[in-house]
Amino acid sequence: MPAEIADPVTGWGRTAPTAAARLVRPRSYEETVRAVRDCGTRGGIPRGLGRAYGDAAQNAGGSLIDMTALDRVVRVDAEAGTVACEAGISLQRLMEVLLPLGWFLPVTPGTRQVTVGGAIGSDIHGGNHPASGSFSRHVLSLDLLTSDGDIRTVVPGTPLFEATAGGMGLTGVILAATFRLHRVETSLMSVDTERASDLDDLMARLTESECRHRHRYSVGWLDLLASGSSLGRAVLTRGEHAPLAALSARSPARRQPLAFRPGRLPGAPSYVPEGLLGRTTVGLLNELWYRRAPRRRTGELQPISAFFHPLDGVPHWNRLYGRGGFVRYQFVVGDGQEDALIRIVRRIVRRGCPSLLALLKRFGVGDPGWLSFPMAGWTLSLDIPAGRTGLGPFLDELDEDVAAAGGRVCLAKDSRLRPELLAAMYPRLDEFRALRAELDPRGVFVSDLSRRLSI
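Given the sequence above, the corresponding structure tokens read:
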């Protein structure tokens, strides 16, 4: 199991780079045990496909345990709708295996380039959270390698499971998992698209959709450069898995209704000038996107890849923000805190943050993970070029607004939160720290995020 020096290492946002990490790529459980035992004084952290936006899967001067070689599908129970697999397998590979059998992932984020271990470690969520919760809700068991070299089978309802789901890899290395799937008849989505004139209109439509259970997936794209009466104008997209009956007899998809062939565009260039996605450019693109969206269109059939993961079709799309990278800022505030959400959106609009990708979604009841991000309420995520003048202090102010409203920021996206706000955002933090101290007294599992936030 050769090791190499990874220098520098960043998350997908390409910010907060760290140096001199020792990268190891085990190919078996035995090699993973050895990698953990050989982490050294700076410890180690498991890493998947590098899609955490911040520093959760970085470890300056320590070890990075690349789990992507442990990527087997162990067993698919097509009757019960469950899959057992190793933790290094990507969601894309699982989709390639499962869709032809009529099964889909219970939860998927905005990219399929995530490993199962990463999905559990960050307790990923998607546009179906009110109906389906986070990824960990569907996990039946997982194999966890702890700092003492033991491999434990961990099940829901136990403290170790609740610490591991959303625990950012700090309880140990997830080796494998078994989880439930969602039955589908086709690999297409039936999609409704409509414009919302402002933020109040968007929130009303999202709430209505949730109450009526008409759509499994809902997300609103916001124009955060629109102001005045158009503040928060949006394009609302809602979808459901298309039944076989939705395909006409003449449709080519009728012959292979479960085929999965994601498209791919040319990759982003290795060099993009700084400031390309500035206020002027993003303003024009936002205007074009909003105007081109239909006022109302129902029942459009789209491939699963286009509906869930449009950016995956552009390799290395994170380069579009230039060498300075970008900050993915995501927060949630609870039901009853709609005024706080509106105030925060107004502050972002007044600041003129050029966010090309700003998404508002509803969350249902949160899952029991002690550091799991979702809670019942509203979540907004936005991408901002990291080089914007005064961005750091401005986001610090937003953090304080979020915390004051009883909300939290997403740790899988974060690279800059101040540690003094963490306990207010995650009220079970002390329990997590206590379990981690008991489970890992030597501090074997550590990351740049855990050091920065004193987790």
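The chain has a mean pLDDT of 95. Try to locate this feature in the token string yourself.
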